[in-house]
Write a structure and sequence with these properties.
alpha+beta, 7 strands, 27% helix, globular
């Protein structure tokens, strides 16, 4: 499999970044405006991208302030079985985020699109954590 990997640093405390990754009201400010569910081990969360796709993920790893891993169990596009992972630690006064997305069998157009989208939303996460304003899909700040 061909993983997508990104590494970024956010000038915010680790618990603030983890909250932005695991609380629906905060995720809706930087990722997509419609988020449902509880971010706890074995729970199902739903990310809705209106007029595009809906994704259901199962939380498969959850370590508060350190690790969040989700597996797609249902989607309108062919990404079932794909896994997103966020690992957090502190580095030089910032929160380091190691992001990985696994599930692609080849580096095709779908891989390229998800790689770009992942980077765009991770930058939105950084802006939300550092400045309080992200670019969630469906929000007034979203760049289409």
């Amino acid at each position: 499999m061909m993983p997508i990997k990104h590494l970024l640093h956010i000038k915010s405390k680790k618990d603030e970044v983890f909250d932005a990754l695991s609380q629906p009201d905060k995720i809706s400010k930087w990722y997509t405006s419609i988020v449902k569910g509880k971010f706890k081990l074995d729970e199902i969360v739903i990310f809705e991208f209106v007029n595009f796709a809906t994704f259901k993920f199962k939380i498969i790893e959850y370590v508060h302030n350190e690790l969040l891993t989700m597996e797609c169990i249902e989607s309108d596009i062919p990404v079932e079985g794909h896994v997103m992972k966020y690992e957090l630690d502190e580095n030089d006064g910032k929160t380091r985020v190691r992001y990985s997305y696994n599930g692609f069998l080849e580096m095709d157009d779908s891989y390229a699109n998800m790689n770009f989208s992942s980077a765009k939303y991770l930058e939105s996460l950084r802006q939300f954590c550092q400045k309080g304003v992200g670019e969630a899909f469906g929000s007034k700040n979203y760049r289409s």
